[in-house]
UniProtKB/TrEMBL annotation:
<dbReference type="Pfam" id="PF09957">
    <property type="entry name" value="VapB_antitoxin"/>
</dbReference>
<protein>
    <submittedName>
        <fullName>Type II toxin-antitoxin system VapB family antitoxin</fullName>
    </submittedName>
</protein>
<dbReference type="InterPro" id="IPR019239">
    <property type="entry name" value="VapB_antitoxin"/>
</dbReference>
Length: 71
């Protein structure tokens, strides 16, 4: 863990804390960083899945067919 002194937008920090349900600046910032990272990873995975579907390498109908989940 590193320690950094930065100027923060207090209104943005307060809004983020309200959305994230955090109570301290540290928790708000760390949670926001994790959320942003996770969001962009999901977006990249979605883009990759779309490319697979477009290339015919992934059959969405088969994946969405719930009858194939369990016999």
């Amino acid at each position: 863990m590193s320690r950094t002194v930065i100027d923060l937008d207090d209104e943005a920090l307060e809004a983020a804390a309200a959305e994230l349900g955090t109570t301290t600046k540290r928790d708000t910032i760390n949670t926001a960083l994790r959320e942003v990272t996770a969001r962009y990873r999901r977006l990249r995975a979605l883009d990759e899945a779309r490319e697979l579907v477009a290339d015919g390498a992934l059959d969405m109908d088969l994946l969405l067919d719930k009858s194939t989940y369990r016999p």
